[in-house]
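User: Structure please.
Assistant: Input sequence and predicted structure:
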Amino acid sequence: MPPNDLNWLGIVLAAVSAFALGWLWYGALFKRARCREAGTDLDTKAAHPGLRLVFAFLGSFLAALMFEIFLGSKATAANGFGAGFVVGVFFVTTSFGINYAFSQRSLRLWMVDSGYHVTQFCLYGLILGAL
């Protein structure tokens, strides 16, 4: 797909949606459970939070860009959402599951982290298909 045919507004909005979702998911809904399962302190401030945010946005942007290319220009909100669900469940969560099994991480941590990414890719598909 030529760069002029890409939905740049949708790509940026999808990347930003990952931040809004992350704030809700890891900040409000599952912070305590994730910290408990990952063995991290609730109140510890991250070193270099700005650098983490830049890296996270770059990753979100690249994922949204590739998802836009994957969906194609004829995607609708409905089939974008469905494609996001398939990618989230059958690519991301299964990959996490393999890693989490070998690193002996808990099922609960896998569910929290995988749930975020399933929702993230559903949002990507919904946004990219709608715009």
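Residues 3-130 form one domain.
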